[in-house]
UniProtKB/TrEMBL annotation:
It comes from uncultured Desulfobacterium sp. This is DUF58 domain-containing protein. Gene3D superfamilies: von Willebrand factor, type A domain. Pfam families: DUF58. Residues 42-254 form the DUF58 domain.
Length: 291
């Protein structure tokens, strides 16, 4: 049973993401993620400017003047949100926790999908697949999905992206548009990432917090790894420690960027101190221009 406070928080997020997924934004999403193939719609009389290659010569001969065949794009897509609920997302030093930013991004994409009549589902994972929500249509389904993302308590707090991608490829057999939303604090998943990109249309949305890139000077402080529970006392003002910390974060960011590039995967960056709409609009615009 949800507490009243959590229910109001989810309700607010549901309203916010639905409002942000405006008709204009939905149009950009639709043009960025195309259907596969076309289907015959109708035959109509030829109009100036129509492609002569679309003329139906049989019908034209029967009626004595030109008619053309009209085709529509097969639009309906299956969208899968691959969502990282590991312990590292229970962190945030700015406007929100990374888990909240993840839920907001997932809710936004889910609303964009249903506005264009696509089906949307989700795979919630940590070091294992925690829950699979099969793809469906409708606003009520998005409400259920957002509620699960926001309130689900994972059984494990570690991360295994490789395992999540392997599960996705077995569970979702038909081609899907997949969004991996994660802080990507993991290694060793390049092979499964490439396999997923060959089977599905994969995009990575990387979640981060400014404090993860530049550690603030707080003197001696205790740090707890939310995934392992390990506690470490460090001097945050020590130059050597800060340099090692920044170097490791830069290495991880570079690793994700490089494997995405090698696999032909789109990558968008979201931060807890930034916006959601603008980075996603840039992502959609890049895809639209490429298409």
């Amino acid at each position: 049973m949800l507490s009243e406070e959590l229910f109001k928080k989810i309700q607010k997020l549901h309203f916010k993401t639905g409002k942000m997924a405006s008709d204009l934004f939905a149009g950009q999403y639709e043009s960025a993620f195309k259907g596969h193939g076309i289907e015959f719609a109708e035959v109509r009389e030829y109009q100036p400017g129509d492609d002569v290659r679309s003329i139906d010569w049989n019908v034209s001969a029967r009626f004595g003047h030109p008619f053309v065949k009209v085709f529509h794009e097969e639009r309906e897509l299956t969208v899968i949100l691959l969502l990282d609920l590991s312990g590292s997302h229970l962190f945030g030093t700015r406007k929100k926790f990374k888990r909240e930013l993840l839920a907001e991004a997932a809710g936004m994409i889910a609303f964009l999908a249903i506005r264009t009549n696509d089906k949307v589902g989700a795979i919630l994972f940590s070091s294992k697949v925690e829950k699979y929500i099969p793809p469906k249509k409708g606003v009520s389904h998005v409400w259920h999905l957002i509620k699960e993302i926001f309130s689900y308590e994972p059984q494990d707090l570690n991360t295994d992206i490789d395992n999540a991608l392997t599960y996705l490829n077995k569970a979702v057999r038909r081609h899907a548009v997949v969004f991996l939303i994660s802080d990507c604090m993991d290694d060793g998943f390049e092979k499964s990432l490439k396999l997923t990109a060959k089977k599905h249309d994969l995009t990575i949305i990387r979640i981060s917090d400014p404090a993860e890139e530049k550690l603030p000077d707080m003197g001696f402080a205790s740090f707890c790894d939310p995934e392992t529970g390990q506690v470490l006392l460090v001097n945050t003002g020590k130059k050597e420690f800060k340099e090692k910390f920044s170097a490791e974060q830069a290495r991880q960011k570079k690793y994700i960027s490089e494997i995405a590039g090698r696999s032909g995967i789109d990558l968008a960056e979201l931060s807890t101190d930034g916006q959601i709409v603008e980075p996603l609009m840039r992502l959609f615009d890049r895809r639209r221009k490429r298409l």
